[in-house]
């Protein structure tokens, strides 16, 4: 069973599994299926607004898709999440990416 199928099965049994949802989004992103990846990131962040890594990876997918304005918004939301959760490392990474996007 491939990773997408395995993660999809986990989510079929438990749609609120944020780790599996993040993994599925990353698998889609790694395969270049950015629309599906972004759809999974959206579900992930709706279920768990403080899953900080989700914002950063979704912003990277948006930037890859040349959706810069949306990537900046995602990064701003992610920076706010990082501040709420005290994740200074993620905050600095997202601030750096935001600065690069101009």
Describe the model.
- This protein has 102 residues and is an all-alpha fold.
- It has a single domain, classed as Tetratricopeptide repeat domain (Serine Threonine Protein Phosphatase 5, Tetratricopeptide repeat), CATH 1.25.40.10.
- It contains six helices and no strands.
- It has helices at residues 3-13, 18-30, 34-47, 52-64, 68-85, 88-101.
- The longest helix is centred in the C-terminal third of the chain and has 18 residues, at 68-85.
- The protein is globular.
- The N and C termini lie far apart (42 Å).
- The mean pLDDT is 96.
Topology diagram in text:
Elements: H1 3-13, H2 18-30, H3 34-47, H4 52-64, H5 68-85, H6 88-101
Helix pairs in contact: 1-2, 2-3, 3-4, 4-5, 4-6, 5-6
Structural key phrases:
102 residues; mainly alpha
CATH superfamily: Tetratricopeptide repeat domain
Question: How much beta, percentage-wise?
Answer: under 5%
Biggest sheet, in brief?
none
First CA to last CA: what distance? Answer: 42 Å
**How many β-strand runs?**
0
Task: Report the radius of gyration as a whole number of Å.
Answer: 13 Å
**Proper CATH architecture:** Alpha Horseshoe
């Amino acid at each position: 069973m491939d990773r997408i199928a395995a993660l999809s099965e986990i989510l079929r049994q438990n749609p609120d599994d944020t780790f599996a949802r993040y993994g599925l989004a990353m698998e889609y992103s790694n395969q270049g299926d950015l629309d599906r990846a972004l759809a999974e990131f959206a579900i992930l962040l709706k279920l768990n607004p403080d899953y900080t890594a989700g914002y950063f990876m979704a912003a990277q997918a948006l930037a890859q898709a040349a959706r810069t304005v949306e990537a900046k918004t995602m990064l701003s939301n992610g920076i706010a999440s990082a501040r709420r959760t005290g994740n200074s490392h993620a905050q600095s990474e997202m601030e750096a990416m935001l600065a690069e996007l101009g």
